[in-house]
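Q: Sequence in, structure out?
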Amino acid sequence: MELSIFAYVLAIFALAGFTKGIIGLGLPTISMGLLAVALSPVEAAALLILPSLVTNAWQMLDGPHLRSLVRRLWPLNLGVCLGTWAGAAFLSGLGGPYGTATLGVALIAYALSGLAALRLAVPAGAERWMGPVAGATTGAITAATGVFVVPAVPYLQGIGLTKDELVQALGLSFTVSTVALAVILAGSNGMSIGLGLLWPSVAGVTVALAGMRLGQAVRARLSAQTFRLWFFAGLLALGAYLAARGLL
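A: Exactly. Output:
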């Protein structure tokens, strides 16, 4: 990897970790979106696996609610795994030429939902069937784009979790998605690509964790509402760019 690309990768992971430290999510979204500007979707996904796994596992384990969340959210997370593996063709072959455009559309959808402050309200009795559907859809989008936020994040926001439960639930869901994505990369040329990018990925873990720590420190001082506005506006612009680039 060229030195300029390596520096670009580290800057992206620092920014993504900083964002995750403030609002509890955004590392895969920002990383995939910006990495896809300079790398292929498969290369970007391979680079993302290790930093995403470490930061998400940290977030998943940081709290007392893990056991109850595992029991409650297993249908969602099972759907994530099955949807990711069923949609594996999008990373190797069938959807490859459209990976960048699909990622752009996913980012646009997520950004618009964030800017509109849309909140899904999930009745308790509907979790049994909505969880697997949301998980499978998220998994399919993960396989196509490497991003695992839509519709899992709106679903988790809509089932009535407390703030601390939500942050830990996001860590759990993102960890499962990362592992599921790693499985399909292991069965394609993504794994050999990932091994070739091992050192940049390890360095990405370091700067992402440093960014998370800084973001957590800033979170107490910065208006979350203001930051989310700029965050989603930036994602909208980035998604529009990637969608146009992938379709032209």
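The mean pLDDT is 85.
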